[in-house]
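Model it.
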Amino acid sequence: QVQLVESGGGLVQAGDSLRLSCAASGRTVSSYTMGWFRQTPGKEREFVAAIAGWGGGTTYYADSVKGRFTISIDNARNTVYLQILNLKPEDTAVYYCAAPGRTGPIGAVSSSKSFTSWGQGTQVTVSS
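Modeled.
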């Protein structure tokens, strides 16, 4: 079972940047498709980005974040990052890191059902 610990969230102003981290233990992230999702109260968890560590680092993004969000993996640290530029108030959410139950390709990378392990989340609040 993998353990995922997110960090890097906080209260920022619109236009600022943040880098969220997801430290993994129990598995090597480079063998998996790792994902980032976000959730606001009363809404379902929303796909943000994913990276196929096993597949040369192929990345996937939600249309709403393309151009501002960048997902990456640091194999030496076994950590997945989410760089967010030009933060907007609508980016306010709890951000979760996720790992699937198997290595290699998974089903729909944008579906939360494709992932079985989740971190505790890190809050990002963007003030206007």
